[in-house]
Write a structure and sequence with these properties.
- Helices cover about 80% and strands about 0% of the residues.
- It has 5 helices and no strands.
- The protein has helices at about 1-10, 10-20, 25-40, 45-60, 65-80.
- Helix 1 (about 1-10) packs across helix 3 (about 25-40) and helix 2 (about 10-20) packs antiparallel against helix 3.
Length: about 90
């Protein structure tokens, strides 16, 4: 949507270009894609990619839940690697 609006409004596109230099690397990369899409009018492609990314996050679940699952698995692997005691 950002690319579509930037393609329609040149002042928004100019503002995005200025803001790109002040953002973190990850945000600047996303802004760069939006700027390129606005300049080449590839908004629908970006929208499709964004919807696919949202669907992937919905499928995987939130990052916090995935982190808990990771640490739970790590705990079981650690416990399995301990020598077994005999009673």
């Amino acid at each position: 949507m950002l690319a579509n609006n930037a393609a329609r409004y040149p002042d928004l596109l100019a503002m995005l270009r200025r803001m790109k230099a002040q953002q973190s690397a990850q945000t600047a990369k996303i802004l760069g894609k939006a700027i390129a899409a606005a300049e080449t009018v590839e908004g629908p492609r970006l929208r499709k990619e964004a919807l696919a990314a949202i669907e992937e996050i919905r499928r995987k679940g939130p990052q916090s839940r995935r982190d808990v699952n990771l640490w739970g698995k790590a705990r079981w692997r650690w416990a399995a690697s301990l020598p077994r005691r005999r009673p």
